[in-house]
Amino acid sequence: MNSRLISIIRKEFIQIFRDKRTLALILVIPLLELFLLGYAATNDVRNVPMAVFDQSRGPEARALLDAYRAADYFKLNYFVNSNAEMQALIQNGSAKAGLIIPPDYAAQLNKGSAQVAFILDGSDPTVATTALSAAQLIGQDHATGLMVSKFSRAGQGSSVHPPVEVRTTVWYNPDMNSSYFMIPGLIGLILTAIIGIVTATSVVRERERGTIEQLIVTPIRAWELVVGKILPYTVLGLLDAMVIVGVGHWWFGVPVNGSLGLIFILTSVYLLSTLGIGLFASTVANTQQEAMLTVFMTILPSIFISGFIYPLAAMPVVLQWISYLIPLRYFLTIIRALMVKGVGLESILPDVIAMSIFGVVIMGAAALRFRKRLD
Prior knowledge:
Layout: H1 3-18, H2 20-39, E1 48-54, H3 59-70, E2 74-79, H4 83-91, E3 97-101, H5 105-111, E4 117-120, H6 125-153, H7 179-209, H8 211-216, H9 222-250, H10 260-284, H11 288-304, H12 317-323, H13 327-341, H14 349-374
């Protein structure tokens, strides 16, 4: 590495550490996003507040309520005496679900079949969908237990078997913890947003201050200036990735089953795309605000059409095809497979090739445009 390139890199690091706002954006914001998304951005539905209108008040009804109470999906917070009370609790949001047990519940059960009413607040579809599935499973499990108990009392317990028994096994994430999905993806989101923005604004800041012209008249070559400007942000981007992997593992319990070396090598490859986007934005913007807005235009599609939050399979076919043009799509598949599944390179090779092509093309085009802008 020649002395001119070292000088540019040293100068860029000095500017970064002098600019407290940029330093906070690179080092503090990722940690804030990690904890916010780690705790808040979750699809795990637990302790749904439920109102109960028990008109039977017998041991059979209490057994049913115990089944719902034993599962951590519902919390029996309210016991009401009328349908109007239950409706009021659901309307004001105090309760998200309601269970109505009829007066003749025990009599119906003795005859062989009983019905209860389960009401859900559908204004939040995520909670309602999970709560509906949980309520049905709890009810079915309780009904199966009652059936087995009934036949056991009749001396036929050993002959009671369901015609089909499905035994489920969940690989990689047995507890289906949302943080296993969200935190690895956060690495890609931070590299896309923060590193792209600080790269773009750092170059534009030189132009605003007039120092870019001073650099041009020096013996520094164009490629040395490009490498010298982006290499410090590469180091900081990898530092952010290390922090997220470390905190995600030790604080949130996200496994790191794959090779750490491979994780950081492929993260470096993905940085080609984010740094290239930032560098390209710096060539079309004249102010730091314009540079940030230009990068921001690429962030929104990356968040919503990459699979970071919403599953790609649930999107319209047109958006699925567009997602192939977003580098973050491939990185999310790679980082989640490496951290959670612990796969090797051969399992993610198509995504690695696609991500590498995007990185080389984007960085190459940005570097060429940047060089022409200097000329």
